[in-house]
Amino acid sequence: MALKRVYQDRKYYNRELETLLQLSHPNIVRLNYFSVDEKTEHGCYLNLFFELGDVSFEQLIAQKARFSEREVRGFFLQGLAALKYLESMNIVHRDIKPANILLVGGRAIKICDFGSAKRVSKNEYNSTYICSRYYRAPENILGIVDYDCRIDVWSMGLSFLELFVFSPVFSGESNKDQLSKILEVTSVSETCRIKHNLHACRSIGIENYLKPIVSDPGLVFLFEHSIVFERDRRLQASKLIEYESAFEPGAEDTQKFAGAACM
Length: 263
Fold this sequence. Notes:
- The chain is an alpha+beta fold.
- The chain has one domain (54-261): Transferase(Phosphotransferase), domain 1 (Orthogonal Bundle), CATH 1.10.510.
- 38% of the residues lie in helices and 14% in strands.
- The strands form three sheets. It has a three-stranded antiparallel beta sheet with strand order 1-3-2, with no helix packed on it. Strands 4-6-7 form a three-stranded antiparallel beta sheet.
- Mean pLDDT is 91; it is low at 250-263.
């Protein structure tokens, strides 16, 4: 079992515990039980006991562990299944990254660390200074406060692509530098560029970035439709799963599904 121990000020409730008690999904780490100790008038220590994962993807990337495209595609779909579940509850994880994705038994993946998770609603103000910078979605960098579950889709796409390149895809030294690195790879409409006062630069396009790295059509589709600068063009986890199924062996009219996903 894995233990997470945090100090809990009595003035505040623990959002992570509140979130975890609502969750039950095979691709989300299970909270076995919790306890409190060292109580004082100001607070206490909260102990969260989780099922144990074998290894994080951050560790696997550091070890330069090799996975086939088929394996990564399977990992990605499991991760999306977890995000689809969270999406159905309007819960945003807000810190998806390789360190928070665990591999169990060599095949199953589980999302962990819900310390930043929050239930969101439309037009609600949310902090944009969330998620580790390398995996932070463009809308968070731009200061858009009414974001949704698609910020997790962006982060997950980058996390699984890292299994092939063994380092963060975008590793800016500041938010401004991070945005510049993203714009060098992802395409942006002129409308979006003007709206957010983005500097003009020549983007290679995510599809061209992927060509020497990934060839599996289904996996390419997942990356191309998750690592998308504009939120409204980025697919939700549920849609990614739906359209990706067209790439299974024997599926017909693949191009029709791929085209529909871009609408």
